[in-house]
């Protein structure tokens, strides 16, 4: 008799659990295969609270490595936080008969006020730079957190400077709060392959909560055992801090971002000009510098400067003589490049898009490389020829090599301009 074969799958993990047959008249049912014991099903249910639905197909390949090291660094942070908090409360006066409630409250107020103010100031100066430097600021955020904890731990050692040290620690943690939160959002978008950023964020919260619970328990035990032993406290703190920075470095090194920023474009283009091959995101990941740069304007290529978003008013007398020629050349363009004294100035049009930012930066880097062998005029002319013949090919090869050319994170530029030829004579 004809029969129907059906299979039941656990979509969370994408694995079949049961296979059975059913006769077409519904009279006979037979279970052919059942996978997974009860302990395995329990384990699968438990991990579903910590891993995104559809894992590993729903996230990028670097997700697991990053989360592993990120959880370890978080664990060390929560252990150390118990030590630093213990020292902080001791400095405020908890347990001392001479301490007053209003005094402790005022000290806590100054600490929080300084941190909040520092967070706002940091956001003003570096907030727009966090998307395009997600790796670097992620690492810097955790380093600043280490500084904040260190300040809390040493604050009781200097009673007269207690408030000042306390506020410095709060300032350091304010940078951590802003940079860590912003870069975490950027990385979540990177991991999400199936528009599942919310799910990934929720599961990351579960992982962090679990690490917090374990870290707090271990930290309480460590604080109890080392209580009164200053040398042991410092040895544990410094050892855990060293491991924390190592785990953070490993976590960031695991990341293989496919979005394009100025550093990654520079690395890819330099290799392309030298070998004619576009590097993959994995190739570039190992070459990226992980220290954040506070400069948001100048970027260097083979010792030649590139200034993005330059003001037209920075052009000197010699440049003004060439300006009509520049306007004619870039009349229909969204940017102009102006080589001068070994520096490539990029003037962006008022309506330049992110794609125009990418094109202008590539053009400037090509001109900068040519400037080492030719004068300013010849390097500009040759770079324009290169862009016309090679840029479309370069762009398509970027896409073919795994780069997401639709996700371009360039440092926001303040200055724009608008130009056109006025054919009317006076």
TrEMBL record:
Which coarse location class applies to the principal site listed for this UniProt protein?
membrane
Alphabetically list the UniProt keywords. Membrane, Transmembrane, Transmembrane helix
One Pfam short name: UVB_sens_C
Question: Where on the tree of life does the source sit, at the highest rank?
Answer: Eukaryota
Q: What is one cellular component GO term in this UniProt entry?
A: membrane
Locations listed in the record: Membrane
The reply on keyword Transmembrane is yes
The reply on keyword Glycoprotein is no
Where the record annotates domain Root UVB sensitive protein C-terminal, the positions are 277-419
> Where's the Protein root UVB sensitive/RUS domain?
38-275
Report the sequence similarity comment from the record: Belongs to the RUS1 family.
Protein name per its UniProtKB record: Protein root UVB sensitive 3
